[in-house]
Amino acid sequence: MAFDASRWLQEDVKDIDPSSRQLLETYSGLSPEEVVPHVLAICIGQMRFIRLTLASYPSYSRILERLRTDPEARYLDLGCCFGQDIRKLFVDGVKEDQLVGVDLIPDFNTLSYELFRDATKLKFEFHALDILDDNADFSPLEGRFDVLHLTSFLHIWNWEGQIKVALRIVSFTKPGSILVGSSLGSGVGGEFPNLEGTGTNFRQSEETFQKFWLEVSEKTGTRWTLKTIFKATGASQMNMDQVWAEPTMGVLLFEVTRTE
Q1: For 165-185, what is each residue's pLDDT tens digit?
Q2: What angle (nearest 5°) sits at the alpha carbon of residue 38, between those of residues 108 and 30?
Q3: What is the CATH number of the domain that holds 91?
Q4: Residue 124 falls inside a structural domain
């Protein structure tokens, strides 16, 4: 069965995630009745694209304290899409010159200012880059970041692709850097059909993620400590007949800290 993209488009939306709604009302100045029509006018699929994932992680308070107390600390959002987590950090007191976003599609960044109505009050550093493009200039990012956020990012690729991406990401870090995020995972770990139906992606289990970072460490000469939590979800009613769905699928949450 081919990938059915229409399953990811939600048209009958009554409301959005409460934290996202609060941000749009208090930061962007939207009235309560404006929120849903405004979001749907810019929507690219499911409402996931404006969820505040970073703030939902256990380490958020520590990350926020680190960025607020050290004006030289820098945050990188990989696959930032509409930059909602960047806006949340800004609202919570992080300065705009500490915030950097990377995404493959520059139009997402352009539309983000329309979505949040903040073109006159926030200008963060943004780079439109393909993380796997060996000809791209990554020098503005190298060795700069204290906190890196990668939610729904690594699981795009198979094992070899994830290794290559991780090697690139490591070049953006320095000793003490923390990587926090989550990915589509698996209770058993392994290659599964990807969402586009054109290849495979590797879904990490807690065990394979340990092996993954061991390989990254060996290839880069760096050392890392890991904290992981796997939350099993299984195939939902929405996706149970998709070829990429499998019974042990879930979400792998991770916090990876560079020790040297």
Answers
A1: 999 999 999 999 999 999 999
A2: 110
A3: 3.40.50.150
A4: yes
